Amino acid sequence: MSEHAISRTAAAIPPAATAAAAWGAGSGTSAAARLKQRMPTLDYLDRAARRRIPRFAWDFLEGGTGADVGIAENRAALDAVKLVPRYGAPGQVETGLDLFGTRYSAPLGISPVGVDGLVWPGATQLLAKAAAKARIPYVVGTLASASIEEVAAIAGDCTWFQLYGLPGRDHLVTLDLVRRAEVAGARALVATLDAPVRSKRPRDLNNGLVVPFRTTARTVRDVALAWPWALALAKAGTPRFANMEPYVAAPATLPKTAGFVQSDIKGTFSWEAVKRLRDAWPRALVMKGILHPADAEMAISIGVDGILVSNHGGRQLDAAPAAIDVLPAIAAAVGTRATVLFDSGIRSGLDVVRALALGATSTFCGRAFLIGLAGIGDGGADYVAELLTEEVLVAMGQLGVRDLASLRGVERRHAGAFAFRP
After folding, report:
1. Burial 231-255 (b: 16+ CB within 10 A, else e)
2. Residue 224 pLDDT more than 60?
3. Is the previous residue joined to 212 through a cis bond, with omega within 30 degrees of 0?
4. CA 296, CA 360: separation in Å to the nearest integer?
5. What is the percent of the chain where pLDDT is above 90?
6. For residue 273, with 0-12 CB atoms within 10 Å meaning exposed, 13-18 middle and 19 or more buried, which class applies?
7. What gap in Å lies between CA 215 and CA 224, rounded to an integer?
């Protein structure tokens, strides 16, 4: 669906019969209509993705840490949030919003996923294109398969940059990455807190997915069976740690950069290091991975602009609470002093609306967009952006709210909300 078509949908949520036709249930035979019929939700894309990419790539995308409890908890907790619709006041629905001085079209963005090119070769550039087309933020990762400079040239003011800590040599590389992000024009710097140590990811270990990656007979077989992925690899080339290449001796081969990643990236930041980031970065600073109101308070005291509530998509600590369950307490603690954002488990526009109703200003998801690429191919991220935006519109129309701010007033039941000790 084009931007013009989305705007027309936003202008007035159609009655049921018209809505069904808009979702491809009518007699349309265009490629877009057929795709909507075959892939009406992310679950359908998920099933297609599993057939199209190698087993090691699928496990990397879908897996978490430990026994995948965190992933299941995120899903169950979001499903448990109930919202009460109000009827009798149809009208125009507006999904646009301002984040840190830039206007975006919908309350969703693309989260960073390290080594995204492993899931779908060329993913970083495709995600950047999708963000620019949909006018949503893309948080390109430190370990993305294309550099911050390449992404900014594609995504423009939709570019944000996620930063891991490299504390060696007094954060020399960390601060140089900050400099590069500023020169490239990134609108926000998103510093990750929730990776103090490397988590154990059993699926990746079982598949031999380690840094540096080693090819085995099993991986060769998996690639041969996943021919769409193999064709994409032939087109895009081997995934790289593009942001790390300037920091290794030339030529910056994959083994060299992989070794640098393994030895130098330590993940998190101390609060003292956060203060240095605040001093070095002139634009919006967001802290990602916060699950406790006290950590949000500490970040605000340093002068951060955004709090990204996230449990890393269930990929760090299997005993951590579902991110949605701690969101209301953090939003209440933060108030208007910073912008509260949400990530972890988003798989539909309804999930987006749930998070906004519980206190987030906007949301992000990474897996959903990579599932789109894996399930459809190069246009998959565009499709997911359209799919989620349409689902946001439908959910808001059903709830009887006309703008994002009004979602805060929706009656809800959230039995799983986490209560923190004073």
Report:
1. ebbeebeebbbbbbbebbeeebeee
2. yes
3. yes
4. 14
5. 82
6. middle
7. 13
pLDDT attached to residue 17 = 29
Alpha helices in 281-409 (DSSP H): 293-302, 323-334, 349-357, 367-376, 380-399
Quote the pLDDT of residue 200: 86
54, 389 contact by CB (below 8 A): no
Task: Give yes or no for a contact between 267 and 195, defined as CB atoms under 8 angstroms apart.
Answer: yes
pLDDT higher than threshold 60 for residue 22: no
Structure tokens at 111: 């989260």
Q: Which residues contact 11 (CB under 8 A, 6 or more apart)?
A: 92
Report the C-alpha gap between 375 and 198 in whole angstroms: 29
8 Å CB contact between 341 and 319: no
Residue 91 confidence (pLDDT): 83
Between the alpha carbon of residue 228 and those of residues 31, 225, 352, the distances in Å are 19, 9, 30
Helix pair angle (380-399, 367-376), 10° resolution? 130
Phi/psi for 118 (5° steps) reads -70, -35
CB-hemisphere CA count at 13 Å for 118?
A: 22
Q: Are 311 and 70 in contact (CB under 8 A)?
A: yes
DSSP state at residue 122:
T
Q: pTM for the whole thing? A: 0.92
Q: Is the dihedral of CA 243, 249, 253, 259 positive or negative?
A: negative
Q: What is the largest CA-CA distance in the chain?
A: 66
The mean per-residue pLDDT over the stretch 36-57 comes to 96
Cα–Cα distance, 186 to 152 (Å, whole number): 7
* pLDDT tens track for 24-40: 344 446 888 999 999 99
Q: Are strands 138-140 and 159-163 parallel, antiparallel or unpaired?
A: parallel
**Tokens of residue 201, six digits:** 């990811």
Q: Strand pairing partners for 27?
A: none
Place of tokens 């994409």: 232
Residue 59 contacts residue 357 (beta carbons within 8 Å): no
Measure the CA–CA gap between 138 and 9, rounded to whole angstroms.
24
Could you tell me the sign of the dihedral formed by the alpha carbons of 21, 27, 30, 36, in that order?
positive
| Whether residue 4 lies in the annotated active site | no
Could you tell me if 371 and 384 are in contact, meaning their C-beta atoms sit under 8 angstroms apart?
Answer: yes
Confidence of residue 211 (pLDDT cuts 50, 70, 90): low
Q: Please give the Cα distance from 34 to 79 (Å, whole number).
A: 28
- Which of 171, 292, 312, 414 is the catalytic position? 312
Length of the chain: 422
Pairing of strands 306-309, 339-343: parallel
